[in-house]
Amino acid sequence: MHFQWYPGHMTKAKRMMQENIKLIDLVIELVDARVPLASRNPDIDELGKNKARLILLNKADLAEDRWNEEWKAYFEKQGFSCVKVNSKKGGGLKSIQNVIQEACREKIERDRKKGILNRPVRAMVVGIPNVGKSTFINTLAGKAAAKTGNKPGVTKGKQWIRLNKQVELLDTPGILWPKFEDQSVGLKLAFIGSIKDEILNVEELGAEFIRFANQAYPGILAEKYGIEEAEDSYVCLNRIAESRHCLVRGNELDTEKAAGLLMDDFRNGRLGRLTLEYPE
Question: Is 71 exposed, middle or buried (0-12, 13-18, 19+ CB in 10 A)?
């Protein structure tokens, strides 16, 4: 499978981020805890250099906890602040305000020396599509998610949200990068749903996922679907279709539907907590 997906609006979104970076004190980058490296846009490091940085391992409840800990240590070693969160259920969000203040301590101190007191920290929230940015912002802001207006950045596709007196967030659209040098990165992003299923061959995607699951988590598919695992991932896909009664007219197995079901089960954590990549 070959992965490439970079709609025109992403070029516009990237330009917008470049224009707004000078207004920002902190870059909050959301990554998917199941694929923390594959879900990092390499452009963000260039964009956010000289800024305080916070990485949120989002959807941490869908990844294995021991690997979440390893990834947290990995990013902290590189000088990032890092917090494990589950934006949907609000897990880990209570500590965010303190972490933001801590990450921007130098800036707050510099302001204080200049006599600037109580200026809120301005943070840009970035990440690839479907990594959970909107959910994170809405959960964190609660009902207070509103445009603060009257300053640069209040335009369509981008909005300032005032969390409280100490923090303002700038929401940005999800962007990928123009070329995946490594197609295995594209595959992982397809697994988690950051590349639109409509432009993919879902059967091939399902077969690739089965290959991964049989290797990294043997027995998991047998247990979930009540099937006998097979070395050939397409045989396995047929068995899932059979087990889940995915049929087309004439009682033929609908492997496309079975693959869609499998990917949905993985993305929503119904196969258990799975991590797809590990720190070196």
Answer: buried
Hey, what are 117's tokens? Answer: 């007191």
| 88 SS3 class | coil
**What does the pLDDT read at residue 152?**
37
Averaged pLDDT, groups of 10, the chain, 280 residues long: 58 79 92 95 85 95 96 96 90 88 89 88 89 85 54 52 87 70 84 83 95 95 93 95 91 94 96 95
Strand partners, 8: none
What does residue 158 show for φ and ψ, rounded to 5 degrees? -155, 130
How high is the pLDDT of residue 64?
97
Identify residue 61 by its one-letter amino acid code. Answer: D
Closest CA to 118 of 104, 105, 108: 108
Look at strands 121-126 and 159-162 and give their pairing: unpaired
Q: Say which residues have a Cβ less than 8 Å from residue 34's Cβ, sequence separation at least 6.
A: 59, 62, 63, 192, 274, 275, 276, 277
Cβ–Cβ under 8 Å, residues 32 and 59: yes
Nearest CA to 222 out of 264, 274, 271 is that of 271
The pair of three-digit structure tokens given for residue 162, joined into one six-digit string: 């005032």
Please name the residue that has the structure tokens 């869908």.
62
Beta strand pairing call for 26-32 and 52-58: parallel
3-state secondary structure (DSSP) of residue 198? helix
Counting Cα atoms < 13 Å in the Cβ hemisphere of 161 gives 23
Listed residue (141, 24, 137) closest to 87, CA to CA: 137
CA 280, CA 278: separation in Å to the nearest integer? 6
Q: Are 229 and 214 in contact (CB under 8 A)?
A: yes
Between vectors from CA 273 to CA 270 and to CA 275, what angle results, nearest 5°? 125
Q: What's the CA gap between 149 and 147, in Å, rounded?
A: 5
